[in-house]
Design goal:
The protein has 573 residues and is an alpha/beta fold. Helices cover 42% and strands 11% of the residues.
């Protein structure tokens, strides 16, 4: 039951869900949620159901239903323990504090501080230490990120890749290379990345007017054309895996336009959309903090568009498939090296004097001995940063989807990374609740809202009353009121769903659809569609004040009379 979660709705009903296996229930009565919560917290499902269910039949059906949603997957524990003196499998180098751009929101104020680029002795010491203190047998990841543009120190990047590959081969393991880049450099540099990196994340904020305003060069000119040229080179070898896009208040209501623009430029399938963080250069007074409510609203709006375009959206607010104790490697598992030789666990933590992020710095480079020193007690403390130990997370339905969300965002707002960013928290809850409700509409698993003790003996009036009760509950949580036109459209949709179920069940479709999730069917599924159509018929009848039971009896009586008249030969047209 470790993956089982309960999302409570405002009308005292609930949705059960299991993110890992993507199982979601239709809205359930409150007692089902109470049983599921007890089971998820380790209590016996049978015992919990025995206390809540009024009779044996209800208990058996409830237990079976909850077990179905809970699934069989085991919760995967992180392979590195709290007190293990090892990192996981990722080393991040930040080769340079220098940048070719002057982005309006740069969290590290790249180029403003007189700092030296990373030298080879530091990079080599970091790589050596990592391979002596990393978990498992690979594959390992060497990533370039951080304070400025990594390729302003291209020589070191190239040398580090070559050396790290050699060290990984000594462990008979593969090395996976990644880089986050602004893409503003000569074609020769882009070509080297295309032939030597496994994963490139390229920063592009949308159409030229948005991108050039937010990501100008240091001389004030636009960088859009340079980025697009780099994109075309990277796509030739398939190493461009992601586009990183930052949304400011100016771009919130243009989010779909931004999405479509990036999609039209090339073949990238993953876009990381992030709200601008109010820190660094972004907090200099020229920009306002992002309106998180508005961001969440528009983010929700673009998800269907992304799906239709075949795009995967990555963000701090969309973590549908996560089921984890830890938000990310910043919880003491990733080794990140700043240009000056500080060791942190977060790719964004570059300055130990920055407010609220000091806990992320766990060591430093000793230039005299050319070695790395790590404070493992600080590492262990970061590894306790799970939803189990965050007060705001303990009772949250989405605690294993996000596990406290971003550490450095929380630190910058609250002064400690051992806290949660409430704005990010609210965005996650809003987006995930909407997604789970949409999944619930597909009725992966149905549980009756009322459960008469004597099933099979309900009158037609009982069926109508049950339908009215369900409709009333949905009216309380729908985003917009349903009109008669909406109900008719929904019924047409259900008729279409019934047709698809019938065509699949009777094997009219091609054989390759038999295993496709959308075409899996059964007699129960057909019955469910028929029931949905009846539900909409009842709503339409209520709208016009029609006594459906009487109308049904009258229509059938009229048909019986017609049949008799046809038999007697008295019917004329």
């Amino acid at each position: 039951m470790e993956h089982l979660r309960v999302l409570w709705l405002k009308n005292d009903t609930c949705i059960l869900f299991n993110s890992i296996e993507k199982k979601v229930s239709a809205p359930c009565p409150a007692f089902v949620g109470r049983i599921a919560e007890k089971a998820a917290n380790g209590e016996s499902l049978d015992v919990a159901a025995g206390f809540e269910c009024p009779d044996g039949e209800t208990k058996a059906r409830t237990v079976s239903f909850i077990r179905n949603i809970a699934g069989n997957a085991k919760f995967q524990k992180f392979p590195v323990g709290v007190y293990d003196r090892t990192f996981y499998k990722t080393l991040v180098l930040s080769p340079s504090p220098v940048c070719s751009l002057n982005c309006v929101y740069c969290s590290g104020k790249a180029g403003e501080k007189k700092l030296n680029k990373m030298d080879w002795h530091l990079a080599k010491a970091a790589i050596d230490y990592f391979f002596c203190h990393c978990d498992g047998s690979g594959p390992y990841t060497l990533q370039f990120h951080g304070a400025g543009e990594p390729m302003t120190n291209a020589g070191l990047v190239k040398k580090a890749v070559e050396y790290a590959r050699m060290e990984a081969s000594k462990k008979h393991a593969a090395l996976y290379t990644r880089i986050s880049t602004n893409g503003v450099f000569p074609a020769e540099t882009a070509l080297w990345l295309a032939n030597n990196m496994d994963h490139v994340s390229l920063s592009l904020d949308g159409p030229p007017d948005i991108h050039n305003r937010q990501r100008p060069k240091r001389n004030g000119s636009g960088s859009y054309d340079n980025v697009v040229k780099t994109m075309k080179i990277l796509e030739k070898t398939g190493v461009l895996k992601r586009v990183n896009t930052v949304i400011t208040n100016d771009g919130i209501d243009r989010m779909e336009e931004i999405l479509r623009h990036i999609h039209a430029l090339g073949s990238v399938k993953q876009i990381r959309i992030l709200p601008m963080e109010y820190c660094g250069r972004g907090a200099n007074g020229l920009l306002d903090p992002v309106d998180t409510e508005k961001f969440t609203e528009w983010f929700n709006e673009i998800l269907p568009t992304a799906k239709s375009l075949g795009l995967e959206i990555v963000s701090v607010v969309e973590q549908m498939d996560y089921c984890t104790d830890y938000y990310c490697g910043a919880c003491g598992f990733t080794m990140c090296i700043t240009p000056g030789g500080l060791v942190s666990t977060c790719v964004e933590a570059m300055d130990e004097q920055e407010y609220g992020v000091g806990e992320l710095f766990i060591g430093r480079y000793n230039a005299g001995s050319r070695s790395i020193d790590i404070d493992w007690d600080k590492v262990a403390r970061l590894r306790t940063r799970t939803y189990h130990n965050l007060e705001a997370c303990v009772h949250c339905a989405f605690r294993t989807n996000c596990s406290g969300n971003c550490l450095i965002r929380a630190g910058r707002k609250n002064g400690t990374v051992m806290s949660v960013d409430k704005d990010a928290c609210n965005m996650v809850k809003t987006v995930l609740e909407k997604k789970f409700r949409e999944m619930a509409e597909d009725l992966y698993a149905v549980y009756p809202v009322t459960m008469p003790a004597e099933r099979g003996r309900n009158s037609f009036a009982d069926v109508i009353n049950l339908s009215r009760e369900v409709a009333k509950r949905f009216d309380e949580i729908e985003r917009r009121p349903w009109t008669i036109e909406t109900t008719i459209i929904e019924m047409m949709k259900q008729v279409g769903d019934l047709s698809r179920q019938f065509m699949a069940y009777e094997k009219y479709y091609l054989p390759d659809r038999a295993d496709h999730p959308r075409y899996r069917t059964s007699v129960d599924a057909i019955a469910n569609e028929l029931a949905d159509i009846l539900h909409n018929v009842i709503r339409i009848a209520d709208y016009y004040g029609i006594d459906l039971e009487s109308a049904h009896l009258k229509a059938r009586a009229d048909e019986a009379a017609l049949i008799e008249s046809l038999k007697s030969g008295r019917q004329t047209y």
